Amino acid sequence: MSKVIGHKKQLDFFSKIILNKKIPHAFLFSGEDKIGKKTFAFHLAKLILCENNACDKCKTCLDIDKRMSPDVCLIESENGNIEIDKIRALKEFLLLKSYSNKKKIAIINDAHLMRTDAQNSILKLLEEPPENSVLILITNFKEMILETIKSRVQSVSFNKVKTEEIEEYLVSEGVENKLAKEISFFAGGKIGKAIELLEDEGQRDFFAETMKYLEGIERQPFDKRFEYVKEIYEDKEATLEILNIFERFFRRIMFLKLYGKEDVNFKSYSLLKIRNIIEEIQKTKYYFVNTNTNKKLLLENLMINI
Ligand SMILES: [Zn+2]
Question: Which of 54, 81, 171, 208 counts the most CB atoms within 10 A of its CB?
Answer without folding.
Answer: 54
